[in-house]
Amino acid sequence: xxxxxxxxxxxxxxxxxxxxxxxxxxxxxxxxxxxxxxxxxxxxxxxxxxxxxxxxxxxxxxxxxxxxxxxxxxxxxxxxxxxxxxxxxxxxxxxxxxxxxxxxxxxxxxxxxxxxxxxxxxxxxxxxxxxxxxxxxxxxxxxxxxxxxxxxxxxxxxxxxxxxxxxxxxxxxxxxxxxxxxxxxxxxxxxxxxxxxxxxxxxxxxxxxxxxxxxxxxxxxxxxxxxxxxxxxxxxxxxxxxxxxxxxxxxxxxxxxxxxxxxxxxxxxxxxxxxxxxxxxxxxxxxxxxxxxxxxxxxxxxxxxxxxxxxxxxxxxxxxxxxxxxxxxxxxxxxxxxxxxxxxxxxxxxxxxxxxxxxxxxxxxxxxxxxxxxxxxxxxxxxxxxxxxxxxxxxxxxxxxxxxxxxxxxxxxxxxxxxxxxxxxxxxxxxxxxxxxxxxxxxxxxxxxxxxxxxxxxxxxx
Length: 462
Prior knowledge:
About 70% of the residues lie in helices and about 0% in strands. By secondary structure, it is mostly helical. Strands 1-2 form a two-stranded antiparallel sheet. Helix 1 crosses helix 13, helix 2 crosses helix 3 (about 85-95) and helix 15 crosses helix 18. The radius of gyration is 26 Å and the shape is elongated. The two termini are about 45 Å apart. Residues about 460 have low confidence and may be disordered.
C-alpha cells in the first residue's frame, strides 16, 4: 500500500476533478476546433472566400497560445494528481495500456507540432497544402481522443477483460464506441461556443464574422442534439447494471450533478439558437464567455457523474477506490486481497501507517495507540470518498465522516462499530476489511472524530 492523500477542505478527489474537467474542456474544444477549422478552410477554398482566412488565423493563434498550452498543462496535472490520489489505480492503467499510452503520445506530438505548423504556414504554402495540414492536425487530435476514451471507458466498463486479462478486451470495452461518438458530438457544441468567441474578436462588419457565427450555430446544435441523444440512448444502455442502479440512488449520484448538466446543456442550446436568429448578439464576447462558463459547469456535473458510476471502485469489478482488490483476476494470476487482510490485518500490509511494526507487541504491551491506528485505517479505507481528518471535521470537505455519523446519531464506539459491519450491504461501498481488533481501532477513532465535531459545533454556536 502507498501513502494516503487524505484531502482536507479541498478533497483530493475534488482537486483531481477540477483539473480533469478543465483538461476535458480544452482538449474537446481543440479536437473539434481542428475539424471545424478544416471545414471552414475547405469552404474558403472551394467557394472562393479568402476572407475566411482571417477567422482561421485568429482561431489557430488562440489554439496555439491558450488551448493547447493550458490543455497540455492540465493533462500533466491529471497525471500528478491521480498518481498522488490513487497510485495503484494509475499503475494498473500504465501496466495494462503502456503501448496505448505510447501511441497516444505519438498522436499528441503530431498534434502539438501540427498546430504550430498550421499557424505559421498561413500564406507560406499553397491553400491546398495548408488544408491538408489542417486535416492531418484534425486526424491526430482525434487519435489522442480515441485512445483516452478507450482507457477511461475501461475503468467503468472493463467488460471481457475481467475474464481474459487481454488489454484489447479492456480497450474495446462495452462503452468505448458510445462514449467516443457521444463525445465527438458534444465537443462540437463546445467548439461552436469557442467559434463564437473567436468570430466576435473580428470587426463587426467583417464578412467572416457574419458567415462563421451562423455556421457555428448550426454545427453546434447538430453536435449537441446528437451528443445528448447518444448519451441517453446508446451510452447509458451500454453500462452495466451496477452503474444503472447508482444512477437512481441519490446517496451515490447527487441530484445537483443533474442540475449542473441541465444548466450547461440548456445554456449551450440557447446561445447556439441565438447564433442562428440573432448572430450579432451571439458574437458578443460576454455572451460567449458566459456560455462557456456554464458549459464548464455542465461538463463538471457530467464528468463527476461518470466517475461516481464506478463506485465503490476505481476500476469496476477489479480494484476499489481505496486501492484494495476485492476480486480475483485469474487470467493475470491475481487474487482478491480482502481474505488476506481480514485474516492478517491491514496494518501489517500498510508500511506507511503509524507504528505498524509495534502492532506485533500487542495492545497490552502498549505497542499501539488504538485511536492513532484507527486513523491510519480510516484514512486508507475511507478517504478516497470522505473527508476523515480531525483538524477539519467542522470545516466540511467531501462527505465528511464526522458530519455523516453525527447526523445519524452514531456517537458511541459501539454504534459506530455496528455501522462498520453493515457497510457491505450498500451498493456504493465495499465492506470494511481488517481484523476485528482493527475494526475496533476504526470505531475508536471515529468516535473521537464525532466528539470533536460536536465540540467544534458547540464552540461555533457560542
